[in-house]
């Protein structure tokens, strides 16, 4: 890159300026990177008030043309657009409602490009009072237009980070970003012009199943164990995450025939290993994820499991293994959200905020039934 | 993002006279000659448009004096008497308020809600509309109206409740936050029960959310903090008003300053009002430090503060939130405590209490940790605050 200054190929959208004003825009150091100030769209109204309808019915239509124009300019600078990726949360109003609108607009503008949305689900024990309604409305709008939706759950991230003493949103965001970038960066055993599309294709082979979950496991310190056994531990731990959670001590069950009964059904799995010697992990990976017990009979054998690697060290980790999975585990979150969402809805709680922005009862019922349908598909796997 | 602050009636204006110096201090705009000059922080500069505008329009110079940088408050001073508003116009803050922003009249409302609502509300309607329009014009992004008044008197309650429908009509999408002072058990105005009842009806209908504050509850807090006795006699409301002013600063801090999790006023209005008309929120504040109070305490640990802020004795209303049923609670913390600690403490202390939460509020609480804005000496206080919506607050139809 020489002494070039790097600009992030990204567009920043918000409904108030306090967050964006703290980001990095100007950096004159060589090899430094920054966001581009031209790519900022702030529909400044002091936030959406955690109200999906404000984002979707007010901000969306107001700023959509402007945003599409920025996207057009940005895409003109690329010789080949591989995919669009959106980042946001489903708990608030901007990340959920505003981005639902933009995602729909991008889909109608670029109907043949891969569109991948990634959302942070709110803490399941409470974060924002309207979070469940917002999440349901977002999923219902995005599910039909996106090719894939990557979901992160703040509660489970919180649980995984709990081992380090103190952390804030910054650390949670780094955790998420590492997983995403591990997934989306180049691999050594895979190169294709269409890039992400070919990797993504097996994961989303059925249009009813689009929810992807990322799980990572890494080792930082140098240990005496040789690389292979370290990789083996990482991969085995990932494998345990695919077992049914409510059964105690599944990991203790030795008999593989028995233990396979406790596997969660998956549409497809992708294992990414980054770090030294990751080239040697192929057989271990096959052993853990190749079993046909994971997959419903109708999934094509060749599409079920893929394994990708790169020998370069990833971030500060010596070994970093990431499992991208389209599986039944998501039912738990969806069920939780729907249950609480219905609860607010039948008591008519918070509904008047949405009606004020002309999002009516009918639309809500529609949204609920769409998400119920997603849940039904996954739980019937 | 702009907040427009209306001070109505004697009480509203007296609270304003304590509030504005605190705001100026928070932005580092009020410095005595003796103080060492402190640099103007970027957070302060970014946030300055929330409560101030500048005449004539020019970029804010880094002057630490509101007079030199030509700043004016986004405030309307409305009273049907002259004495209190006059004190603003002659006092040290006189340059802060534009003359067109104050409205006075003679005679007052005589503690009669009907005089405030019908007589003054009718006569002054067009003038007030014009004032609202020009106030809104000066804001590039109007975020919320903050209206401060008392329920006991005539002007604040009567004219104050006449202004709310005007706001709703002209700015239907802007939140209207009413902060109203309830006389409490030491009732000093004979007609106050009527005045309270009549204005409650309007508040239920026209305000996005209402923060009732009880004079007696706050007085008890001041007594406990050991406010000097003589202050109580010659200026009975001084300490009470400074508690209210601090509550207002904390309430709006999420909208003014960046934090780890952003909490705007509209977020509060959405999250804490599950049903149309159930819009009365209780509030509490901890720790509170009064100027010139002699009993001075050692700062508590963060975990303890979270516990204390929910305790009965720190409520600005005379209620016990632990004994009621909550629709939801928001904890707003201005401290450097990391998210993990806050969540952990909340889980620890709230598990026992929050089973009382009514089920459909789906969740436990809204949590918004704000990083402390380290600026000017005595006014950085590590600071916790809970807004809890109590279902037992009854509505008068
Ligand atoms: N992981 C993670 N979650 C976040 C972060 N910031 C907010 N959240 C979560 O997002 C939800 C709140 O949504 P926000 O993104 O703050 O809201 P918004 O999209 O800006 O919408 P409005 O504030 O209503 O305009 C909550 O569930 C938070 O837990 C973050 O930096 N990292
Ligand atoms: N907290 C507080 N309450 C006040 C203050 N001034 C008056 N009150 C209360 O407000 C009520 C009287 O209303 P007031 O504002 O004087 O009447 P108005 O000017 O006609 O609205 C009484 O219940 C007082 O206790 C004040 O400065 N602070
Ligand atoms: Mg926001």
Produce a short descriptive summary:
Chain A: Residues 1-192 form the Tubulin/FtsZ GTPase domain. Helices cover 42% and strands 17% of the residues of chain A.
Describe this structure as you would to a colleague.
The complex is a heterodimer of chains A (381) and B (397). Chain A is of the alpha/beta class and 381 residues long. Chain A has a domain at 236-330: 60s Ribosomal Protein L30, Chain: A. Chain A is 42% helix and 17% strand. Chain A contains 13 helices and 11 strands. Chain A has helices at residues 52-76, 94-109, 131-145, 154-161, 169-184, 196-203, 227-240, 256-259, 282-289, 301-304, 330-346, 351-356, 361-379, and strands at residues 6-7, 12-14, 33-34, 40-42, 83-89, 114-121, 148-153, 211-219, 266-275, 305-310, 319-327. In chain A, the strands form 3 sheets. Chain A has a 7-stranded mixed β-sheet, with helices on both faces. In chain A, strands 1-3 form a two-stranded parallel ribbon. A two-stranded parallel ribbon of chain A has the order 2-4. In chain A, strand 5, helix 2 (94-109) and strand 6 (114-121) form a beta-alpha-beta unit. The longest helix of chain A has 25 residues, at 52-76. The radius of gyration of chain A is 21 Å and the shape is globular. Chain A starts with 5 loop residues before the first strand and ends with a helix. The model of chain A has no long low-confidence stretch (mean pLDDT 86). Chain B is an alpha/beta fold and 397 residues long. Chain B folds into 2 domains: 2-207, Tubulin/FtsZ, GTPase domain (Rossmann fold); 315-396, no CATH class. Chain B contains 13 helices and 12 strands. In chain B, the strands form 3 sheets. Chain B has a 6-stranded parallel β-sheet, with helices on both faces. In chain B, strands 9-12-10-11 form a 4-stranded mixed β-sheet, with helices on both faces. A two-stranded antiparallel ribbon of chain B has the order 2-3. In chain B, strand 10 (326-334), helix 13 (339-350) and strand 11 (366-370) form a beta-alpha-beta unit. In chain B, helix 1 (9-26) crosses helix 6. Classes of the chains: A alpha/beta (381), B alpha/beta (397). At the A-B interface, helix 5 and helix 11 of A face helix 11, helix 13 and strand 11 of B. Bound molecules: guanosine-5'-triphosphate (GTP), guanosine-5'-diphosphate and magnesium ion. Chain A: GO terms for molecular function: GTP binding. Chain A: Belongs to the tubulin family. Chain A: Residues 1-192 form the Tubulin/FtsZ GTPase domain. Chain A: Keywords: Cell projection, Cilium biogenesis/degradation, GTP-binding, Microtubule, Nucleotide-binding, Nucleus. Chain A: It is found in: Cell projection, Cilium; Cytoplasm, Cytoskeleton, Microtubule organizing center, Centrosome, Centriole; Nucleus. Chain B: InterPro entries: Epsilon_tubulin, Tub_FtsZ_C, Tubulin, Tubulin/FtsZ_GTPase_sf, Tubulin_CS, Tubulin_FtsZ_GTPase.
């Amino acid at each position: 890159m020489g002494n070039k200054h790097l600009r992030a190929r990204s567009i920043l959208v918000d409904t108030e300026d306090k967050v964006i004003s703290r980001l990095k825009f100007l950096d004159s150091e060589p090899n430094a990177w920054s966001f581009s100030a031209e790519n900022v769209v702030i529909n400044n109204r002091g936030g959406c008030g955690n109200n999906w309808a404000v984002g979707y019915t007010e901000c969306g239509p107001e700023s959509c043309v402007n945003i599409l124009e920025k996207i057009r300019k940005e895409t003109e600078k690329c010789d080949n657009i591989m995919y669009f990726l959106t980042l946001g949360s489903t708990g608030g109003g901007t990340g959920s409602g505003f981005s639902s609108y933009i995602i729909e607009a991008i889909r109608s503008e670029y109907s043949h490009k891969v569109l991948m949305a990634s959302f942070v689900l709110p803490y399941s024990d409470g974060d924002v009072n309207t979070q469940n309604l917002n999440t349901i409305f977002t999923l219902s709008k995005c599910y039909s237009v996106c090719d894939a939706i990557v979901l992160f759950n703040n509660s489970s991230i919180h649980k995984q980070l709990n081992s380090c003493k103190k952390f804030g949103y910054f650390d949670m965001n780094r955790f998420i970003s590492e997983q995403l970038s591990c997934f989306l960066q180049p691999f050594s055993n895979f190169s294709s012009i269409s890039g992400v599309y070919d990797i993504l294709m097996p994961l989303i082979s059925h249009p009813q199943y689009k929810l992807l979950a990322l799980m990572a496991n890494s080792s930082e310190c140098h240990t005496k164990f040789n690389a292979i056994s370290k990789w083996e531990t990482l991969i085995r731990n990932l494998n345990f995450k695919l077992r049914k959670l409510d059964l105690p001590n599944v990991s203790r069950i030795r008999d593989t025939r028995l233990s396979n009964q406790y596997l969660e059904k998956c549409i497809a799995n992708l294992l990414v290993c980054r770090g030294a010697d990751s080239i040697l992990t192929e057989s271990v990976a096959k052993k853990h994820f190749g079993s046909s017990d994971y997959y419903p009979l109708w999934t094509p054998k060749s599409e079920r499991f893929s394994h990708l690697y790169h020998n370069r060290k990833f971030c500060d980790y010596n070994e970093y293994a990431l499992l991208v999975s389209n599986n039944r585990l998501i039912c738990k979150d969806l069920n939780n959200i729907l249950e609480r969402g219905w609860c607010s809805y039948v008591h008519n709680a918070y509904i008047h905020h949405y009606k004020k922005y002309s999002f009516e009862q009918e639309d809500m019922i529609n949204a609920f039934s769409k998400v119920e349908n997603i849940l039904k598909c996954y739980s019937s796997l | 993002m702009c907040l427009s602050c209306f001070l109505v009636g004697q009480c509203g204006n007296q609270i304003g006279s304590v509030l504005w110096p605190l705001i100026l201090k928070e932005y580092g705009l009020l410095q005595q000659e003796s103080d060492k000059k402190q640099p103007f922080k970027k957070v302060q500069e970014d946030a300055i448009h929330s409560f101030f505008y500048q005449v004539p329009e020019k970029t804010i110079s880094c002057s630490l004096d509101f007079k030199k940088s030509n700043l004016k408050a986004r405030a309307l001073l409305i009273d049907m008497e002259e004495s209190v508003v006059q004190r603003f116009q002659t006092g040290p803050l006189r340059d802060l308020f534009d003359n067109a922003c104050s409205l006075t009249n003679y005679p007052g409302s005589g503690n009669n809600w009907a005089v405030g609502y019908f007589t003054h509300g009718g006569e002054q309607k067009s003038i007030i509309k014009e004032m609202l329009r020009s106030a809104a014009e000066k804001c590039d992004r109007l975020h919320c109206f903050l209206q401060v008044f008392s329920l006991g008197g005539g002007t604040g309650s009567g004219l104050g409740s006449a202004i709310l429908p005007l706001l709703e009509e002209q700015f239907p999408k802007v939140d209207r936050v009413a902060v109203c002072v309830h006389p409490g058990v030491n009732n000093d105005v004979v007609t106050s029960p009527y005045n309270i009842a009549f204005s409650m009806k309007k508040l239920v209908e026209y305000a996005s959310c209402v923060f009732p504050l009880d004079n007696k509850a706050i007085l008890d807090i001041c007594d406990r903090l050991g406010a000097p006795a003589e202050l109580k006699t010659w200026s009975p409301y001084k300490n009470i008003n400074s508690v209210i002013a601090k509550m207002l600063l904390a309430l709006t801090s999420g909208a003014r300053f960046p934090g780890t999790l952003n909490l705007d006023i509209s977020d509060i209005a959405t999250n804490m009002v599950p049903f149309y008309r159930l819009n009365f929120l209780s509030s509490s504040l901890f720790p509170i430090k009064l100027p010139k109070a002699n009993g001075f305490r050692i700062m508590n640990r963060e975990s303890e503060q979270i516990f204390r802020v929910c305790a009965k004795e720190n409520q600005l209303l005379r209620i016990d939130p632990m004994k009621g049923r909550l629709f939801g609670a928001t904890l707003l913390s201005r401290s450097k405590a990391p998210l993990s600690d806050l969540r952990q403490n909340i889980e620890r202390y709230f598990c026992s209490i929050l089973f009382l939460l009514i089920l459909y509020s789906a969740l436990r609480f809204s949590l918004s940790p704000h990083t402390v804005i380290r600026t000017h000496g005595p006014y950085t206080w590590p600071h916790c605050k809970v807004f809890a919506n109590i279902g037992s607050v009854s509505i008068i139809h």
